[in-house]
Known about the structure:
This protein is mainly alpha-helical. It is 52% helix and 4% strand.
Amino acid sequence: MEETSTAVLVVPGSVTTSKVEQFREVVAARMQRSTPMRLVDYVPVYATTHEIDVETARQYRMTAKKLEEWAGAHVHLHDLTELFVSAFLRDYSQVVKPGTVRSKRTQLMALWRSAADEYLCEPPTRRVRSAKVPWVSREAWTIEEVRKLVRAASWLQRRTKEGIPRSEWFDLAIRVAWDTGLRWGDMIRLRRENIIGNLVVVGQSKTRRPQCGRLSLSTLIALEESLARHPRHFVTPWGRSHETFTNQVRRLVGKAGIRPGTWKWLRRGGATDVEIQRPGQGMAARHLGHAPGSKIAEINYLDHNQIAANVPVVSPRELG
């Protein structure tokens, strides 16, 4: 009867017969051969091996730089430990909102685990401080406020980097964002061929799910007039940084005299307006491109104060 042989990994200098120890030595040897790399310098590597866009990669780099600012020194991959990252998240939570802390935690853990997969550092093996986000009713602009925003856009001067008058660009962008519920990144990549009649069908860059929307008549008219004056492939192209866009939105909101808010308030506002018209039917989630049955819209997007003020409710009978 022939004996079956099992291949044994041979590691130079190894005297152990444990396969676990043998592979540990392989990993250790590979790490020793690796040149220490800063976390911020690993971001381009991560962006190459993972499907993230340029803007997302930039956010990851900003997170790595923020960690170095807190540490007061360069942070290398081998510096990452559970206590180190937890201490950063603890201190960071004192100056920013919980949602921002959770976002930074997610990015740091993604970079850390990816680097560990490449034997560039030890993987996280213990608990890292969590970043719980308490539920609060989201704020969103009402349709009246968005109309004021559109009017304020007509007062804008100068042109975008692509040569489109800013008054025209923001007027169209506000309308498209309100009608479709597209995220900012998907909106600036929206092509003319993604619009058939009044239908908009695109693949979401964040979820890879299709998102379907409809443009109102006034938006279609504004779009066709803009394309006739400034032919282009993208509906609302933006060639500058996201920070520049955010600053311009802030100034536009001030001109409009409405509640201070971010571009996300448009996406939330459109979904909230849909929910007010068709309450409890899941249409807001569909407007946002969420998966069927998802509760994300209800929890994280809808302005329940607006809904409570506009949707009739049945209350328990008075006790007397």
